[in-house]
Each structure stands twice: as C-alpha cells, then as structure tokens.
User: Fold these one by one.
Assistant:
Number 1:
Amino acid sequence: MPFLTRPLSIADRVDAVFLYIFVLSAAFLVFITALMVYFTIKYSRKRNPKPVDIEGNPVLEATWTLVPLLLFLSMFYFGWTDFAYMRNPPRDAMVIEVTARQWAWNFKYPNGKRSDELYVALDRPVKVELHSQDVLHGFAIAAFRVKEDVVPGRNNFLWFTPTLLGTFDIQCTVMCGVDHSKMLSKLHVLSEADFKDWYFRDEDAPPPAKAQVAAPVVPGDTAALAVLQAKNCLACHSVDGSEKVGASFRGLFGRKQNVVAGGKPTEVVVDEAYLSESIRDPRTHQVEGYPPAMPAPSLTDDELRQVIAYVKALQ
Ligand SMILES: [Cu+2]
C-alpha cells in the first residue's frame, strides 16, 4: 500500500472516491434486484390469491428514505472535499504555464525555459496554468487523474504531484478541430537530479525540425521555415503540396484563386501583395473551399518578407 507511507495524492483520492461510488452503486444494484425478485415470488398471485390492503409503516419508510439519503450524501461529501483539495494548489508548487493551440501544447517554466513536452521532478507538486490561443481545448494527464478545460480568454489551472517516475501521455480531451486527435504530448517525470540537469541545460540551438517539415525545403531557406514553424502555420498549411486545413504553400504563388473579398466573390492571382494581405489580416480574403479558420498571426515585417519569399520560391 504505497499511499500509507505518504500523504494521499490527487490520484489516490480520485481512485478512492471512484471505488467508493462504484462499490456503493454495485451493492445497491444487487440489493434492490434481489429484493425485487424476492417480492415478486413472495407476493405472486399464486401464493396470495386474495389481495389485502397493507397499511403504511412509518419506521420502515423513514429507514428506507434516510439510510440511502445518508449513503448517497456521503458520495457528495467525499467528492466535494476531494474537489476542494484539487482546487487548492500547495504554495510551493512549481508553476508551469501551458499554452494550447490548434494543435499543439507548449510549456513554459519559471526560468523562462520552454518545451513541447512537459518535464517535472518526482514528488514535487506542479501547478499547471492553462491558456488557449484559439479555441476550447482539454488538458488531461490520465496517469495522474487530472483534467481541466483550457478556455480561451480565461485562466484555468490544475495541480498534481507526480509520484511515479517515467513517461506518461498528455491528451487533448475536447474536440478542437480536424487534428484534435493528434494534439498529444508527453509528461516526463524525472528524478530531482535529472530534472535539475534538464532544467538548467542551455538550449540555444533551435529545436530539431519536426518530421512534418522534413519534406521539401527550399534550399538555403531555413529561416523562413523556422518562422512558419514557430508561428504554427504548418499546423494548417503544408509545404509539400498536401492539403490540410488551409491550402499548401507549394505551388501557391502565381496561381489563380477564387476568393470572397469584401463580401464579393472574385478571382485573384496570388502575388506578393495578396500574400501579404492574407497573412497580415486573414479576413480580407476568404479563400473558397476553406473554412474561415485562420487566426491573425503576429509577424514582424522581416518575418513576413521571409515567408513571402519562401512561398514564392516553393513551386
Ligand atoms: Cu485541443
């Protein structure tokens, strides 16, 4: 019984409440079903050919009302106290900011370090602050029994104490768009020493390019690609000609495009001005056949120039 040697964790509490409710419900299921079968037989017409009136029995009625009431209220009591516990993070918890967006997680630590997967130290409580850049997401770590909605424009949080070493799944539990099912990450629980190693390691080098951009790269233009990756454009636009939520950047330049601009359908030729406008303010042109799903990105003029040059070269 590992939980006898340390304070109950959130996972212990959630499991205990779940077990309690389950056992109580199962007991009532068996009890009520058995009673029903027993009465059906005992008071069948065969055995009681002559119906009789049964007068009320106040003691019996009070018992079958009060006993279940107290038992079921106890479910509420344990659920409520554990819920209160889960909404009160310890003061010494390490605060990690989580940013959710379509369709990735990003984690920011107190020292400014960032990562795509969550790293924590064994037995050190963490408070996870949840922010969304776009739509509703759900942050869940099933292994530690925590799950909260990530609501745009609202600051939500959860906390837990990682009591097991190892790697666990992080999932998005709210249907948040076409690639919702790929919105996955990992929780790495490290020993205190390993965590310090990781936490204080300098990583000036940009993170390794992900598989999704390993495909055709315009020679020499890693800077533009880095921008596209950092600004999450590649979640919706491919560079290899495959369709995602938005059109592929490959072969886009110079193409004739049916768009709705200012409420009127028009045909435009994709040139630098068009690219610049549709990136700066995605609402100016609505491309036919695509959902109005593009968020307004924050690009510097330099980054915008790089991206346009990149798209132009990507034939
Ligand atoms: Cu999501």
Number 2:
Amino acid sequence: MIHVQDLQFSYTSHPFIADINFTVPAGEIFGFLGPSGAGKTTIQKILTGLLTGFKGNVEVGGIDLRKSNRDLYERIGVDFEFPSLYEKLTGKENLKFFASLYKHHVAIDPLLESVGLINDADKKVSAYSKGMKSRLDFIKALVHDPDILFLDEPTSGLDPSNARVMKNIILQLKANGKTILLTTHNMYDATELCDRVAFIVDGKLVALDTPHNLIISHGASTVRYSYISEGEEKTITTALDKTGTDALLLQLVKENRLSTIHSSEPTLNDIFSFLTGRELQ
Ligand SMILES: Nc1ncnc2c1ncn2[C@@H]1O[C@H](COP(=O)(O)OP(=O)(O)OP(=O)(O)O)[C@@H](O)[C@H]1O
Ligand SMILES: [Mg+2]
C-alpha cells in the first residue's frame, strides 16, 4: 500500500531526511518510533502530499506522489499532530462539513459514538476539552472511510481510558483491513499496536522490524536473584540463557535458599537506546 524508496528531503540547505526505504503491505499497522524532532511528522507530511520537493520515489495506494492526484485524498485519512477544527461549529457540524468534501462518506453518529462524543455532538468545538478535540480530530480522518490512515501521535494528550478507547479503535480499523501508518514516541503503544516499527533518529531510519524481533535480536533477558549469606542479602544478575549453567543459582534452588527471583525482558526503549544511543522521551 505504501512504497518509499530512497526518500530524501530537507527544509533548509542542510540535508535532513535521507535514505528512507520501506514498504507497508495492506492491512498492516506500521509505526515510526523516535524522539522529538526525529522527523516523524515530516515523513508523514511527505507521504500525505503536504510537503513536496522531496527526492526518491513515494507511492501511496498505487498513486505516485510526484504526480499531483486528487484521488489520493479520497483514499487516505490523516489525523494531524495538532487538531484542525472549526471552533464555532459543533462537533457534528465539523464532521458533516469535512465529509462533504469527499465523494464517499459514512454515517456520522456511529463515529461520534465510537469515541464517546455522541452526547457532546451538538456542542461548539470551542467548548470542547483538549482530549475531546483530539478524539473529534481522529474521527474526522474516518468520515470518508479511507483505506489508508496516517495517524500522528494518536494517543498523545489523552488520559489512559481515552487512550485505550483510541487504541481499540485503531486495532478494529486494522481488523477491518485498513492500512495504518502511525507515529509515536511511546514504546508501549508501538509494542502493542504495531506489526512493524521503524526507529527514526535525525531524519534516518535506523532499524525496522516487528517489536518482538527488535527486542529478541538485540537484547538479552536477565534474571536477578537474591539470597542470604552470612546474615547479608546478596543479589546476582545473570543472563536468562545462562541460568542452566549458573552453579550458584542451581545450588540455591536445590537448597531452597532463594529469597527473590525476577526475570526482566528488555523493552523497546532499551533496544532503541542500545541501537541509537538516544532516549525516546
Ligand atoms: N516547516 C518547517 N521548517 C523548518 N524546519 C522544520 C519545519 N517543520 C519541522 N522542522 C524541523 O524538522 C525537524 C523534525 O521535525 P518533525 O516535526 O518532523 O519531528 P517529529 O519527529 O515529528 O517530532 P515530535 O515527536 O516532536 O512531533 C525538527 O528539527 C524541526 O525543527
Ligand atoms: Mg511530530
């Protein structure tokens, strides 16, 4: 659904986005994970036709982005980083207006219902809270039932229960066959939602794989155990795959002398710092 080959782009004379290559098949949730300023929004703006003047090949839904094509906007839904809504119109009027811009649209009320805004549908957006605006902006991207969605930080600024609602809708959209490209700097969201994740740092794509593969291929799980020796608690950390040959651990197990034992798996954040030397947040 999305093909990006040798993408390069710069806002100034200084090169920024460079050598970005990836393909997103239909029905996948693909994530850009990276710290603030990495270039996630910039790449999304290129893929949605907002920034032109890039080098390389970009194809979205079979449409070559270097050729201007109105059909692209019927095919894609975009939830921008910052809500863009008409404050003087109600939530419902906003959705009706945006739906009227497309050839094809879906029923508005079920969309409002899905994000818990049906009872606020007739309130002016100026009276909405930040989280309500985020949710309205999100369903605005769905009014024309697009097959490809670009979601820029879809859960940012939402409380945990609304973030949960949003993540469930994203998973439901995937189950309905939509292709989704989202950006995040939240490793939990990336791990839970994304089939594959691209690490983005300083405009470059540093790694690309499933969250599971990124974690197992670059990080070792560890086991930490403690026991009492000569009246003092001692704590040992060992690699999970070395526990079978850890004579002390085996002896403590046999003698039933372990005080505590914990395993810990690396997180996507650990792998991100390991590969890029940078922190996500
Ligand atoms: N219109 C612009 N003109 C010049 N520079 C820009 C413009 N928009 C963004 N930049 C710069 O490009 C870099 C990447 O910005 P971008 O918005 O793509 O980052 P991001 O990864 O989405 O970050 P965040 O997580 O904070 O949203 C930043 O250094 C930013 O200052
Ligand atoms: Mg951004």
Number 3:
Amino acid sequence: MEIRQSKLTREWIIFSPERARRPMDFKKKEKKKKETPEYDENCPFCAGNEDKLIHSFIMETPGIGGNPWQTRVLPNKYPALVPDKNVTRGVEGIYLRMPAYGKHELIVEHPKHNICIGKMNLEGVKTVVETYWMRYNELLKDKRNMMVLIFQNHGSRAGASIIHPHSQIIATGMVPLLLRVHEEESQQYFDNLGRCVMCDILKFEESHKERLLLENDSFLSFVPYAAEVPYELWIVPKEHKASFGDISREEMTKFAAILHGVMNRLYNKLDDPDYNYIVISGTRYKAGEPHLHWYLKVRPRLTTRAGFEIGSGISINPSLPEKDAEYLMG
Ligand SMILES: [Zn+2]
Ligand SMILES: [Zn+2]
C-alpha cells in the first residue's frame, strides 16, 4: 500500500495491490458478442456505403494494399460543439458564459468495419497518425481554436457508440482547466529547476527501466509512476516539443510504429480492452514553450470511478505500475 504523487498534476494516487485482481480477471468475462463482420451494410463508414453519409467528407487519404481509401474525415453527426458560433464571453448575473463554439470531427481510421488500431498493420496506423497531424494543423489555423484534442474511444465502456474504427477531434474556443493546471505545474517546475518536467520523467524512466514498455529512436512508452488506472500507459517523444503539430515526417513514422506496438500488446495481453487514448498537446500560443511536452495517454477502462474517487479526485489504483509493465511485456 502506498500513495504516490503525480509529477504533472501533484495529484495523489493510492495504490492498493491487495485489491488487485489477476490480470486475467480484467479480461472480459464473456467473449465478444459475436464475431464482428468486415462489412456492415447499415454502417455509414464502411466502404461502399457512402449514400448513408449525411455530410460530405472533409478529406480522404489514398488506399493502401487494394483499399479504396485509407482514412476519411467527416464532421461529427452529433457534435458536442458547433462551428457557426463565436467565442465571445458574456455574463449572466454572477455567471460567465460563452457560446458553444467548436469543431467536432470524426476520423474513420480504416475502410473495414472490424479492425482496430491494435490489429491494424503498420502502414494503416501510419496513415491514421498522418491524418491526425494534418487535421491538427488545419484546425489550429482557425484563431478561435484554443485547444485541439485528438482522442479515440474504443469499446462501450470508453463511451464509443459505433463499432467502425474511428477517432475524434474536438477544437474548443477556450482552454480547459485540466490542461491549464497541467501547464501551470510544468511552468513552475521549469521556473524552479530550469528543465522540462516531462524531459526529466523521460530520463528517469529510461534509466530506471522497471516501468518501460517499448522504445524506438524517437519515442519511449511506459506505465507512469503514478498511473491512475490499471495499465495506463504513455507514449512520449524523446525530442522536446510542446505541440504534436510540430513533429517531423520522420517522427510521425516512429510515433506510428510505437503506437502500433503498444496497442497490439494491449489488444493481445488484455483481450481487446475498452480504452480511451488522447493526444495531449500544448494549447494555442504554447507551441514553442520550453516547459510543455506533448504525449499520448492511453487509459484502459477496466475499473469504474466510484464515490471516493469522484468526491476527492484521488484515484485508487488496484494495480501497481511496475507489475502492469511486467505483465504487458511478459
Ligand atoms: Zn463500418
Ligand atoms: Zn520536454
């Protein structure tokens, strides 16, 4: 039993290994419903079902290995935010408010219905990453967009409502508190020590090794010291850059390779768990900052946040990060 503090948020995490179940128990009790078919005639995102799309797509990448296309980007049919608003704040009594401005796009990751990042080939993952990068930079051109967040919800526990492999991008007209707190913590660390906190975390994890997963020339993946949930993992670029939009072609290829490797391990070791992953990148005007360092966070959805976690903000993680890393790499 121990309590750890996250370097990035200064949040406390309680580790309670005796509450842990064997990794086997995290696997889904029943096997997947029935085998998902490669093509579903009712799915608007399957190749050949273009007549079911209500929007024309924003962009499309050329197909690989006989596919008619590889990725497609569409406006989300049920957007959380809408683009035809402004970002002007207003007040209502003691309250501050602003219109629901934002962009919400959906990235179809593959023409086939039953594939996911964990099963895709490397070329496929590379195209997904390139699509992220193109949309990220395109959305940042609009000065109203203060934050561009790329994420993937995989499985019903992660909030996914459609099976067809897809990611989403939301651009907002304000900076969320979570990211601001994150930035401020990193700023303070930098002001005190003159170093980027994530660069320090990278160095420590690389030399310490016990939470390491995969590594290549440009990226390191590991279970974070203060993981909030079992099998949380991060993919961090070795070169200090605040913005995902600033990575080179070479880094994109290396990022795809490690994402491919890590998601494949997660898929095989935990039997295709539900998860969310998020690209956490500097908000507008922060791209060149020496204290910010972009990364990707994967959060498997194996446990449920209960009253204590919700009330206190403190996570109770039944699984130790070192054990998680050992299991995933074993
Ligand atoms: Zn489909
Ligand atoms: Zn850094």
Number 4:
Amino acid sequence: MSSERVVELLREAYADEIETVMNYQTNAIVLDGVRAEEIKESLQQDIQEELGHAEQLGQRLKQLDARPPGSAEFTAKQDSLQPPADSTDVLSVINGVLDAEEGAIATYRSLIDAAEDADDPVTEDLAVTLLSDEEAHRTEFRGFQKEYQRD
Ligand SMILES: [Fe+2]
Ligand SMILES: [Fe+2]
C-alpha cells in the first residue's frame, strides 16, 4: 500500500533537490577568488549527484502511480543559499549548503519513517541511500566551514 504521506514526501524531496541544483549551480558561477575554487569544484560535483537524486525520486513516484511536480507547483525555500551580495563571501555559501543538506537529511529521515509505516521497503531503501549521500555532503562542507571559520 503506498501512503499519501510517502508520495507527498517524495514530491517535496524532488522539488528540494531541483532547488538545490539551481542554487549550487548559481553559486558555483557567482563565487570569485582563489579561495572559492575548491568550493566551486565541490558544488559542481554535487550538482550531478543532486540531479541524480531528483531523477530517482521522480522514477519512484512514477512507480507509485504518482508524478513529480512541475515548476508551477514549486515554492522556493532556500533563503540562506541565495548568491551572496559579496561574491567573495564563500562562508555564506558554505553555511547555505549546510542548511540545504540538513533540510534534505530531515526530509529523508521522515521519508524512511513514512515508508516503513506504509510497508514500502523500496522507497525506504531509496531514502536510506539518499540520506547517506546527503550525510557525506554535510561532512565535506562541515570541513570547509571549520577551515573558513578559523580564518
Ligand atoms: Fe540530494
Ligand atoms: Fe546533498
């Protein structure tokens, strides 16, 4: 039995992943400076992963006889990940990325619980895999945050 809650969370996670792709891409372009190079490279890599997450979530929705949302249903959430006014403010982007990753982690934890309640092990397995990717992203950016906060 697929629960409405599972579909709702899959659709929410899909939209969040797409918003993440947009903001990582924008910040990877906007940031300036020698110190930004490593962050930009890491964002570029994560863009591909987050896009892959969106695709997997969308395919799972289809398997559940649902569909991912289009842009008309989209509500932006990532205030802290907007490109900074000062294009050398790398720490602002790092903090925004950490907020986005924490948000994704919370959503995948909710999805794991909802999928378990709905006896939907396939969605649960997907949510566990994506949770593990987001925790790895968080670890990487926590490392960047440490370095930037020290300076
Ligand atoms: Fe993701
Ligand atoms: Fe991520």
